[in-house]
Amino acid sequence: MDIKQYVIEHGRQVNLAAGQHLFRQGEMEDALYFVKQGLFKAYYLCQDGKELVKSFIAEGDVITNLSAVFEREPCTFSLLALEPAALVKVDFDSLYQHTLDDLELSRFMLASLIKLAQKKERREYEFLCLDATTRYQQLMQHQPDLLHRITQNDIARYLGITPVALSRIKHGRKA
Amino acid sequence: MDIKQYVIEHGRQVNLAAGQHLFRQGEMEDALYFVKQGLFKAYYLCQDGKELVKSFIAEGDVITNLSAVFEREPCTFSLLALEPAALVKVDFDSLYQHTLDDLELSRFMLASLIKLAQKKERREYEFLCLDATTRYQQLMQHQPDLLHRITQNDIARYLGITPVALSRIKHGRKA
DNA sequence: CGAGGTAATTAACCTAGGTTAAAACGCTGA
DNA sequence: TCAGCGTTTTAACCTAGGTTAATTACCTCG
Fold first, then answer.
1. For this UniProt entry, which residues form the secretion signal (chains A, B) (predicted)?
2. Nearest-CA neighbor of A127 among B168, B159, B153, B55?
């Protein structure tokens, strides 16, 4: 079955206002979402209360909390709508079961997972090998569009630095 | 077809001595490897000549350079045998084509990719939210076995710090 | 056994980025 | 218009980790 067909048959529309959570760290979650409209930030809340941004998710992206739905554990991060959003919600287990029996669905999942793995590998590379200034430049190059929809605070926490440090970097004040 | 069967039919044995490379950053590569024996480090060589360790790969693991084989680009990292190693080499394109037409192979690929994605997400979390000391403790907890097979230099470069810093952390000398 | 090589430790000093707090700069809404 | 609130900037100071280099601890090989 085509993934679009599957989503039409099994999906449920979900709408969120900006500022609302799709799910929260610690909660149980069993769904996978297709983003039709809007912008999300996925973020971790650390023990010391700090918030770090795992990723931004926009139209066309698929989002789920892998370890949560797959291992049936509490969500490892929260997902917050930064803009009014429209999504389609699909039960993960059910989709996964169908995937195991349907070559066309399976191809879709494979492609999505490879894309995800590549994205995470690039991020791993950036944290491992680049300093904050270079990471910021890369972000500007590769996602210039994103920067206009996101607050500088969130960009900083995505880069793994503080808003203060990002402001310094932007204004070339390092000494 | 069962993945084991596929490997038996299409795989080619490869043996490496400790210190030999399976492939090098910048080279072209089109294979996927199943590690039967041995230990590898995957590492990046940065522009400034520094070496950072992406991951360690041991018996039972599957290793490939995703972006290289999938996007037909030069390898993004090098793979070096730290111990004498035995692997089975499989052509990626061919396996991928079979995967697209065979549910059983497809299930294997899905499972591998999900495992990979989870591993990379955990690493992303660690870089984003934890300091070097905590990352080291986590590593000791989750892979105590690895530590005995790997040099402290490599552990440091895997944690994203210098060997000097790791030595300081181990001996509680922070001031 | 001793020479040479790598890995680990230590010390002194340096820098990127964190912390805190205070201003400046928008907004939006009454 | 202006009050109120979040975002960004700036400044002063602090700390984790980097850098360099010297010292020590292991190995392996002749």
1. none
2. B159
